Amino acid sequence: MNKKLGNLFKGDKGIWMVFFFLCLISIIEVFSASSTLSYKSQNFMAPIIYHAGTLAFGILLTIVVLNIPCRYFKLMTPLLIFLSFATLLWVLAFGESINGANRVIQLPGFTFQPSELAKGTMVLATAQILSAMQREDGKGADSKAMKYVLWLVLPTIMLIGIENLSTAVLLFGVIFIMMFIGRVPMVQIGKLTGCLVLLVGIFLTLVLTIGSMDDQDEQPGPVTTEMTVAQAQQAEEDGGEGLFAKIFHRFGTWRNRLLNHSDRPDDPKEYSVRDNFQVAHSNFAIASSSIIGKGPGNSEEREYLPQAFSDFIFSIIIEEMGLIGAIAVVFLYIILLIRAARIAGRCENNFPAFLVMGLAILLVAQASINMMVAVGIGPVTGQPLPLVSKGGTSTLVSCVYIGAILSVSRSAKRRDVATANDYKKDIE
């Protein structure tokens, strides 16, 4: 029996442990934080049954992907690139609006978020380009590597950024780190950094200028999807259709989020809970906690946070599990990154090493953004906590990432054994 389980759950045992602990925390905390969904559906068990089913299917996907040899991932790259661009274009034109942005495609029985597919695809393609462009003298990547990566990644980032800026920034940050790991010439890295600083300055100026012309701030109080869609429709009627409205309709939201984060009053009495509803109740959840927390299922702020089971689930974790629980979750993501680095270090070829590091950095960076928003360090972005937040496409794609990391760990482990056997034979 143990042998059969060992054959099923192959790969790095540390990654498996992190994966299962995150899934366990997810089931407990999503069950606790889904009270608003239970009220809406009038079914106490429906939200957690759906989430548990999603995680079970995700674990199945993980097992399937880990049994695919890493070399076959390269063959999937062209198809995944085509699907990513096609679905990103489709969602911009015909996508379902969530929180005032076209981010999902409505399919029979579920919704699909193309940006999740595009993130993993760009990491896969970047790993392939960087590995293929390594110079024979071992002095890093060819000078053309960055150009090829940017030609592929920048159009994807622009398509994502129109409706989901935080995901676009996250993806570019991961690709930037991958180019650094892939030993792209530092001169090029420096030039790209300079261009980024300039572009960020221009972009912020446009956001603050154009956003003030169409100030569509989020409604204070418990925000619902229906309210946001109605606001977006009204803004569309007032502002008119057209390319300008399509491209810049999110600028007002971005401006308000930046200003709400940066213009916090020094006197707590001047702080408006009504104007900063989600952030305020996230802070209430954290402030009312302790070292050990209130215990699973005892959150009070879940009744007020509209995204308690998703964007602000880390706040609920702190409220219920305390500082110890929060540190434990952070520690799990750190272990994931460390184990991925060890796997990459054992790889003989560059492609699997770059791939496993890119996927691990993507998961950990997204987790970091979610946790920083929850504790008030960063502006509200809408990034879920990987493998913990309630989600469909996000959860399943994160499970696929884990499966790919485990697939690489299997081949790296076999090479370690082969190298050890060769060394033993040489000694004998």
- Identify low-pLDDT runs: 216-244, 422-428
Largest sheet: 3 strands, antiparallel
Structural class: mainly alpha
Which strand-content bin applies to the residues?
A: under 5%
Number of helices: 16
**Large-scale geometry:** globular
- What's the count of strands? 3
Strand order of the largest sheet: 1-2-3
Order of helices and strands: HHHHHEEEHHHHHHHHHHH
Report helical residue fraction. 55-70%
- Span of the ends, CA to CA: 36 Å
Mean pLDDT: 80
CA radius of gyration:
23 Å
Q: Short summary of the structure?
A:
By secondary structure, the protein is mainly alpha-helical.
Please provide a written account of the structure.
This protein has about 425 residues and is mainly alpha-helical. It has helices spanning about 1-10, 15-35, 35-40, 45-65, 70-95, 115-130, 145-160, 165-180, 185-215, 225-240, 245-250, 250-260, 275-285, 315-345, 350-375, 395-425, and strands spanning about 95-100, 100-105, 110. A three-stranded antiparallel β-sheet has the order 1-2-3. The chain is globular and about 60 Å long. The two termini are about 35 Å apart.
Key terms:
3-stranded antiparallel beta sheet, 16 helices, disordered C terminus, mainly alpha, single chain, 3% strand, 428 residues
